[in-house]
Amino acid sequence: MPSTKTNPDDVLPLTPAVFHILLALADGERHGYAIMQEVKQSTDDRIKMGPGTLYGTIKRLLKAGLVKETDERPDPDLDDERRRYYQLTGLGNRVLKAEAERLAALVELAHGKRLIGRPAAFTGGLHA
Amino acid sequence: MLEQMESKVVQRSCRLYQRLLVLYPRNHRDEYGPAILQLFRDQCRDAWAEERMRGLIGFWFRALVDLLKTSFLEHLSNLNRTMHMLSTFRPRFTPLSVFLPVFAAAFLLVVIGSTVITFLIPKTYLSTARVTVEQSNSSSQAVSGPDSEFDPNFLKYEFEVIQSHAVLTKTIDALNLREIWGRKYNGSAAITASKAEAVLRHSLDLQPVRNTKLIEIRAFSHNPDEAASLANGVAEAYQQYWHDHRLELARRGETASAATSTVTIIDIALPDTRPIGPNKPLNITFGVIVGLLLGFISGGISAGFIVWKRTYDDPSGSTPAASSVPAAFQDSASLKPGANLLMWIIGSFWISVGITFIILIFIFVLKIGSPPPGGNALVPLVFLLLEGSGVLTALAGFSLLREKPWAKIYIGIAALVVASWSAFGSLFPFPGPFRYLFGAFGLASLCTLVLSFATFCRTRSHQTELS
């Protein structure tokens, strides 16, 4: 049963694992292995989630209403029917944006204190 | 060849991993088992493809750690869900909803307790005999009188005579007090002469009447007739003492040089129908004040604990238990062992006090023994010791909860206080109810301590499981 929380700030901050899973789903629906591959690539192999961690986290994300399972298959001929696909919900999308903005604000703060240089990607903002 | 080997290794790994999935709770395994196994198979192939056996071993190590950790969290999550379902049947606590009943309970407990004890404490009666005393040989000191200068040294000396061994022994023998008090305080056996003398001395109060030659000999007892007979007996023994002393001096031919006194009994003591104690309005007022104070303290602590517990249970809070799990998905970590320990200690302390009051009521209702004359002065001391051991018990419990290093010191001191109850009670010749009082308080405090420690040990083992 999904959580009744609708305010993204209620579930912040997210852990790196949760954030990366949501980030992996930002491009569209994916199954578990595809999520793992995406996380692995986007973090240069620094975050390695085991199967239990991935599905445990997905279970909680489903419960919190941040992701949902979908029956659609991008290409049923090329895919195993046993795979389960997941996609972001509206709330999940808002939570992901809110977390990204929070992290961006922290980066800005660190930049203001001259701890890091200004990343080029942040100059245009994150409000996609 | 390599493909065959890969197939074998992956298949065997998957079979083994499938068996290990039994570590997950059944509902989780039924729902996500196939997907987890599928993902394991995919990762297993990748690991083999990247670094062959070395990669597979490394992957297996990570997968095992992951399996153990997540299966443990899933079990905790299930347990927490069960507890959450149970908690929906319980009333929700707010600081005010906790403060009011705790305040009311503490207030009523103290007020009702003090009122009941006030009414159950035996009544104390006072009887007064008046005597005049004149110095027979007044060569050096003028006898005090209405028109003469008052001499406090002379009266001090006479007071010492009245409370002397000689006078009190005469009184005890004349009134047969060893037998009477033996039946009253010591079963049926006569009490010793020294104990009888101590009780009699404790029952007396001597007062001069200002600017007169009169001395008031006051005696207290729970029996009005006994109070009157004590006062009259002491007055007569005192009179007899000086009479005998003069006869002795005359026999030795020393009457001219020695100073003696002549005692005349002016008023004999009569049994009083109105008791002088206990002072019911004063005791009940005192109970109301103490009840308000303790009510506010215990209610405030309980309400503060609810606020603290809410902060502790808040999933977005940065508590140690919460920090290890995703902030938004903490149902595995929201189980808080020990969170109820402080509440338990407060409750158990008040329960112990309540049990003690009940025991006291039974003692007084069943009339097991009765306090000595004037013995009510011990009650404040006993209550002081009760509060002391209660505070120590609470401190010990609190320091256990917070895992403070001085917990052992508090437990040690509290245990010492508890042990001193029985020692104090047995060393001093307290009569019936006071001996029970010590036993009751000691037992209640000891139970609180033992249960605090047991709860702490249980909490520690639970926390170890969680970590």
Instruction: Tell me the Rg of chain A in angstroms.
Output: 16 Å
> What percentage of the residues of chain B does DSSP assign to strands (E)?
5-15%
What gross morphology of chain B would you assign? rod-shaped
Helicity of chain A, as a percent range: 40-55%
Helix content of chain B: 55-70%
Structural class of chain A: mainly alpha
How far do the termini of chain A sit from each other?
Answer: 30 Å
Distance between the termini of chain B: 46 Å
> SSE order of chain B in H/E notation?
HHHEHHHHEEHEHHHHHH
Low-confidence stretches of chain A: 124-128
Q: What's the number of helices of chain B?
A: 14
Write up what this structure looks like.
The complex is a heterodimer of chains A (128) and B (467). Chain A is mostly helical and 128 residues long. In chain A, 45% of the residues lie in helices and 8% in strands. In chain A, strands 1-3-2 form a 3-stranded antiparallel β-sheet. Chain A starts with 15 loop residues before the first helix and ends in a 16-residue tail after the last helix. With 467 residues, chain B is an alpha+beta fold. In chain B, strands 2-3-1-4 form a 4-stranded antiparallel β-sheet. The chains are: A mainly alpha (128), B alpha+beta (467). The interface between A and B is medium-sized, with 32 and 30 residues.
Key terms:
A: 128 residues, globular, disordered C terminus, B: 467 residues, alpha+beta, four-stranded antiparallel sheet, rod-shaped
Write the topology of this structure.
The complex is a heterodimer of chains A (128) and B (467).
Chain A: H1 16-25, E1 30-31, H2 32-42, H3 51-64, E2 67-70, E3 85-88, H4 90-112
Chain B: H1 2-20, H2 26-87, H3 95-120, E1 125-135, H4 152-162, H5 165-175, H6 177-185, H7 193-203, E2 204-208, E3 214-221, H8 224-252, E4 261-267, H9 280-313, H10 320-323, H11 341-366, H12 378-401, H13 407-427, H14 432-466
Helix pairs in contact in B: 1-2, 3-9, 3-11, 5-7, 5-8, 11-12, 11-14, 12-13, 12-14, 13-14
